[in-house]
Amino acid sequence: MKKLINTPDLVVPDALRGMATAHPELSVDAEAQIVTRAGGAVPGKVGVVSGGGAGHEPMQVGFVGRGMLDAAVSGPVFTSPVPDRILEATRAGDSGAGVVHIISNYTGDVLNFLMAAEEAEDEGIKSAQVIVADDVAVKADGTNAGRRGTGAVLLVERLAGALAETGASLAEVAALGQRTNDMSRSYGVALTSCTTPAKGTPNFELGANEIELGIGIHGEPGRERRAVTTAREIVEAMVGAILEDLPEAAGAPVIALINGLGGTPLQELYIMHAELESALSPRGITIARSLVGNYISSLDMAGCTITLCRADEQMLALWDSPIHTPALRWAC
Amino acid sequence: MKKLINTPDLVVPDALRGMATAHPELSVDAEAQIVTRAGGAVPGKVGVVSGGGAGHEPMQVGFVGRGMLDAAVSGPVFTSPVPDRILEATRAGDSGAGVVHIISNYTGDVLNFLMAAEEAEDEGIKSAQVIVADDVAVKADGTNAGRRGTGAVLLVERLAGALAETGASLAEVAALGQRTNDMSRSYGVALTSCTTPAKGTPNFELGANEIELGIGIHGEPGRERRAVTTAREIVEAMVGAILEDLPEAAGAPVIALINGLGGTPLQELYIMHAELESALSPRGITIARSLVGNYISSLDMAGCTITLCRADEQMLALWDSPIHTPALRWAC
Q: A102, A218, B37, B90 - which has most CB atoms within 10 Å?
């Protein structure tokens, strides 16, 4: 294993120290693994709080700031933070108006956030939960944990975070988060495995000319393996899987996210965006807003996810509103 | 070779099509491989124009926009654009106030930009050149082409671009660009080779536990190979090489760039930033501004470069001024 780290057990606190030194506009507790805005909770504003395993940077800690999250808590690599830490982040994000938890749909995350929410309620902190489950590679069939949360986590956090800045209520922010989730679908493709610092070897093996479609962002098995092919054919397969599951997309504007998994250069992500536009245009789907880059990574995995979110006017206006986080910053 | 591409010969135009579809604020000629601001040259403003081989995305095409470049021209992967195309980009960037060319110090780039500048002069377009040469791994000894341009290219383009927005003259913008270059030093480390689309195999081989210090951003050989070690030791070696060459850094604020080479996750880049701060602080050097991410990549190479720029008040104020490009956006 070759990584720019000190020791595997210090990866998360060391990276958080790096965030602290690079971003004075954040308050970073590298030991508790909690990141908040330097100014603390915004009086009167509903707090938007998230968290999850590390290894997906900039998600979640890089999404803290005006127009997105108030607090984020990081677990160890690919492991949910414990309820106590989620509770601590919830307290930090609450100014009295309550907190919306945005949770990626993984068993540990959901369980731990719900436990923290109960404890928060005992302390008088109101909360609402939005569970993000957008990965169409997993069919929710009642026997599994349902769909995984991937790219839509960013969209839900951004739009709910933007609405919270306007002074909207807890119920309104949660409802918009839920609606964003309901309107979003994602699909991933991997060219390589990732290597976790603790294990030191690839999580799974892919042949020298093999790609895996439907991969999860922790390397969960996908739907199928194929011989490597053109970006155009890969996008076509990904878009097909997404649109099969996203009703009434034709004619609607979408927010499109081409998300790199950590080991894929930006050049390739832009090629994927070009092919996405070519695939959507003849289907009458307009890309109204785009985001291309590494936002929800899987350590050093090569590959990407595509997320499409059918967006109405309110969602587009919220998307465009001011945002100032380490990973996303515009229209300040 | 596994890449998200169509065919090796379409990598650059396809990626530019992706930029065109993702960034309506840009005007992209995917065939000529020239990117300009959608509004064209800004009347009365000195144009800032750059270019170079592709494979370093977002550099240079992702740096076009308010507060940075007016136009950028991309060559094929790792290959300089031809003089005709540079001339075309120069014309596009000129509003009558002249153009500052910012050139990475590689033989082909320098030669082609100087030829284009001569032709531009014949057409009545004044220009000045800033040749960026910041990589301390190469000792300029009169027998070689001198130092390579790496991370300082971003800093020079940003600060010269910001000054140009204020209505400064051609000479003033060029002088600030030159001063930024003179105050900047960089050093790179690679954990893996990159693989060019045309060749399809790694440009060089590194052992399973080997890193290369002093690597160039095209995979040019470095100063030494070492067994992989901690981020702390790697940073110490890099900072040592940089400071040996950056006089009077102690006590001065620096702009610090931790730049990923394309295949290294953000988590590791933040760890490098933490260690950079730990290495500089006892030496009396304050990091006044930070940038952490993939800005000057080398396709899918794992590794990073560190750039330090000794910055005065003017440079810090220009750094903070409004910028709106695909890769850098703040304080709008």
A: A102
